[in-house]
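Recall that a protein's primary structure is simply its ordered list of amino acids. Everything else, from secondary elements to tertiary packing, is in principle encoded there. The following example makes that idea concrete.
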Amino acid sequence: MNSSSTRTCRTTVPGRRVRAGLVVVALVGAYATGATGAATAAPAPERGTAIARVAEPLSEGLVAAMRRDLGLTEAQAVARLAAEAEATAVEGRAKRAAGAAYGGSWFDAGSGRLTVAIAEGEGGKAAASVRGAGAEVRLVRHSERRLNGVKAALDRLDAPSGVGSWHVDPEANKVVVSVVAGERADNDVRAFLGKAAAAGPVEVREVAEAPRTFAAGTVGGDPYYTGNVRCSIGFSVHGGFVTAGHCGRAGQQVRGWDNSYIGDFQGSSFPGDDYAWVNVGSGWWTVPVVLGWGTVPDQLVRGSNEAPVGASVCRSGSTTRWHCGRVLAKNETVNYSQGAVHQMTKTSVCAQGGDSGGSFISGDQAQGVTSGGWGNCSSGGETWYQPVNEILNRYGLRLHTA
């Protein structure tokens, strides 16, 4: 997590000053035209209203990143954001309709619809209600409650370093355990997998590398520093910002890109969780935007509705800037070398050192803060984020929205 590197890059500092001005202009423009966003949950929209919502001006940078990373045309990106917004609205209603038979859900990019798994034998009547809520239905063997019980049993085990993570996969209707390539024959890994299989329905998949956090030493162009570690700001909250817990401990001072004092870590948790929040003062202020780092326009944040599995998601970080991908899994336990972290969301987005704590956003909805992953933005990889709503609830914070 720490680094002895003292290399600095100051060439981006002038750009940071110009960008701050652009943020203010973007916000003034939004308010002048009456663009507003709900900071609290609102009643679920009727089918089709999500398309009107996405008709609001979209960040060119967001669409450009989706085109680059997901291979979409501009029209496809806009259409997908509309479909995902509708799926997000449908998911809560469909889950309530499924009741105890609920087996999880995911967004299907091909059909543009949300699919809900219903446990056979429990959901004959529920299936009709779920369809009525606007979702597709797939009958499965196990309910989400059953699979969550299996995952909870794995959470109580000591995992060896060759085991990367584990989560409930609603589409596979199993608990998926990720094992680092070449480590499956390791005695400790085999023992862990044996106990996992005894707990219930488990599927083993290989990953290229073990997960790691994305903090880094001082290398310049950073949103903030703690000691010799740099990380990225996640989302503005009233009174400060949220970020990753492994970036600093409660009481540590935080310095900004210009090395001036911002505030202190007010709360931090890692491992177990990977979240923290920093108060902002000393001439610093908060704005409801995700930064484009001078490469793409900034993105306004209008809420924190949770996107379903399969939805597109984009990440902004101080090292690799904007990159996009898909939500692959939720409530995954990630086995870092420092210890396991629970309730993480896995994505196909790449990241690198220094991106830790940065923003994950779907459309204009905040999703979470970057924790860690494997791979990089040259060869690809996977990255996990800590869901933002969990952080807000833990510390009693309120997201700063446009």
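Helices lie at 13-32, 49-54, 60-70, 74-98, 124-132, 144-155, 187-199, 388-395. The longest helix spans residues 74-98.
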